[in-house]
Amino acid sequence: MKKIFVLMALAVFLTGCGKTGSLDVIGEIQIETIENSSDDAFHNSLDPSFEERNLEILAECKNRKIERSIDTAIGATLLINAQASVDGITGVSQYEYVLTDITEEMRTDLFKSVFSEKSDRAEYDERNDVWTLEIDAKIRNYFLYQISYSNGGTNIPGEQIIILENRYYDLYPFEDNRLRSASDSTVDLTLDDAVDRCGLIVDSITNTGDYAADYVQAYGNNGRRPYLKVVFKRILDGMPVTAYNDMRFLIDDDGVEKVTGSVFSVREIGLEKTLLSLDEAVRRLQEQAVLLDLEGESQMTISEITLEYVVIISDDGRILITPVWRFLLGKDEDERNFLRQKILGIDAVTGELIWEERGETM
């Protein structure tokens, strides 16, 4: 059984929204120096000295390589042979994750982007509160749309989830059907074309313009129907936000077969302390390795370390987007991509271990 260890707290330094400032360069990282125009007492209390230190911590990671062997309590080994990667990060902060209801306007935009002129053929079933769009009545090939809620694993209470799926095909979206490399896909559609098509749908639903494809995985083992899974995440400060229900698409040569995920808005809180350095994060990982169950593996390799945002639920019940040092599992790019949804990380504010699978709690 998957073990989940997440402890969290407030933190993150102030960047961004509704403020003016200038650009400084530390190393090769561009940083916006904030001149706070807010009357918010909390933001006014932030000390610029630790903001500068946070930026220095990122700059110090450039060209860093970490090599370490960490033994867990059950005799397994974490082998770290990893390059630090913080390119593209424009700042670090902490945000409140604000639930957003799925509206009828979103549903309409989704149907138009997926089905084009056929979207007008959709029918509403008031009794079951679902929409259907028939593709081929002879073989009962139709799409079903509904709004659902997380019902498995750790999740956000009350969060609405879009589900649009072709009910004719059983695409079997499980690990034993996943190909080791996306390049092994037998779908004629290229990975770039799949990302482009799904990106148009994301833009139509969210209207924020700040989502990007995070990874693409290929499915179709043992003669099963081949398809691609494309996962989009919102980007804040140049970092992807891993939520509990990321925007996910199953797409094949016939088009998009399934869309699931939640949308959200954010409110910046800001950090009032420095981040853990990369070395401190590695030390915290080593200290808490006793909590790790590598799910039957005797050894797992970490080949890249990044700073990313992860959604957490604080002890007082607040839903926060917080920076996390992620230790990406896998010996190479293909294996990292295959294991992308597994989070091994250290909360960059509290130092607590995060070890769980994310992105899909349905």
Can you describe this structure in just a few lines?
It contains six helices and 19 strands.
Question: How would you characterize this protein structure?
Answer:
The chain has 362 residues and is α+β, with helices and mostly antiparallel strands. It folds into two domains: 20-97 and 268-357, no CATH class; 101-262, TATA-Binding Protein. Helix content is 17%, strand content 38%. The protein contains six helices and 19 strands. It has a 17-stranded mixed beta sheet that branches. Strands 1-2 form a two-stranded antiparallel ribbon. Strand 7 and strand 8 form a beta hairpin. Helix 3 (104-115) packs antiparallel against helix 4.
Outline the fold blueprint.
Elements: E1 20-26, E2 29-35, H1 41-44, H2 48-60, E3 65-71, E4 77-85, E5 95-99, H3 104-115, E6 123-125, E7 130-136, E8 141-149, E9 160-166, H4 191-206, E10 211-219, E11 227-236, E12 239-242, E13 247-252, E14 255-261, E15 264-268, H5 278-287, E16 299-313, E17 319-329, H6 333-338, E18 342-347, E19 353-357
Parallel strand pairs: 4-16, 12-16
Antiparallel strand pairs: 1-2, 3-4, 5-15, 5-17, 6-7, 7-8, 8-9, 9-14, 10-11, 11-12, 11-13, 13-14, 16-17, 17-18, 18-19
